[in-house]
Automatic annotation (TrEMBL):
InterPro entries: RUS_fam, UVB_sens_C, UVB_sens_RUS_dom. It comes from Asparagus officinalis. Residues 247-393 form the Root UVB sensitive protein C-terminal domain. Keywords: Membrane, Transmembrane, Transmembrane helix. It comes from the Eukaryota. It is found in: Membrane. GO terms for cellular component: membrane. This is Protein root UVB sensitive 3.
Amino acid sequence: MITVEEWRGSSSAKLSKTATISATSSSLHLHRSESRFTEIWRKILEAFVPEGFPGSVTPDYVPFQIWDSLQGLSTYIRSMLSTQALLSAIGVGEKSATVIGATFQWFLRDFMGMLGGIIFTFYQGSNLDSNAKMWRLVADFMNDLAGVASGATRAALTQHFSLQNNAADISAKEGSQETVATMIGMALGMILAHITRGHPLAVWILFLSLTLFHMFANYMAVRCLSLTTLNNERCSLLLQHFMETGQVLSPQQISRMEHVFPIWVSSWSSGGKTKSYHKHIRLGAKVSSLKHADMMELSGLASSHYKKATYLLLEKKGYVHVLIHKHLTASDILQAFIHALVIANYLDKSKAVHTESRLWMDEKYTVFLAKLKSAGWTTERLLSPSIAWRSDWSHSTEDEKIS
């Protein structure tokens, strides 16, 4: 006699027993651990969630997808209502309407949307990864940009959700979820369009209500995200808390503190309790814009505080300018940015900011990185806007200048 158990799961930590089969020389007995309904429900669910769910994705995947699907649903309903209004406006169903007039107005709508997407990519394309949450929200608020910003930030979020190198599976299942939301939204939209036909006030009230819900659902979706990558603002929040308490905040705690709206406040971040030191950092300073006095100061810094460093930091009028060496690695850029943040923290507390910050980096930087890793942060690189300007330098102690 032999007894074999059947277990289902993508990893040893996420297994569930589905059946037990026993065999003798004269009989075979099969006992299923799942009911028929449970098995059918599981197969349906597999079409919409990644393999190994929930262990194959991050904890914020489910709440984000729920709110994202709800905002998508409202979008498709609004689309049906707006399409009906647009067709009515261009004269569909009226004898006076011409085909060329209707075609031109439809073309103009699509053309303006595509033009807006191109202009947006030109100005903000390199900034999407570093501020994925903010631009995801902006993209959904401004649907003309959705094809660019939403698609680019969605790729960053898919990588975030992936715990088992299953980004392709997550993306495919997200497509299935969106298809279902589209079908439901179109059906509801057609019903509502039929009910409100000939009642423009009802159409406006319904459209505005759906728009408000769409914005709220997008806000909630973005707020659910707890990204583990380090960008400028998260670095600033983490470092300031560490310098005050010696402890590192978790991604979930930082998620509640960071901005998601593109509103740049010069002095204070959320709640007025945390200063936005990252806004005082100029990463990748342009050397040709420096004056003679700046060069002389850099010469002294290069021969003293930054002898072995692959970056130079220059403080000017409350801003810290970071000169990035042309061969600097991703981890070096993170170190340079954190060093600049330390200087920004010391500007109001010490006159010897370079000396104090150098001591802090020597004593605390390694500890800070170790605590970041143990809290679940990814410390391999800094997600920052593209650095356009890099430098290469040499200095002489005789004439104290950088060439």
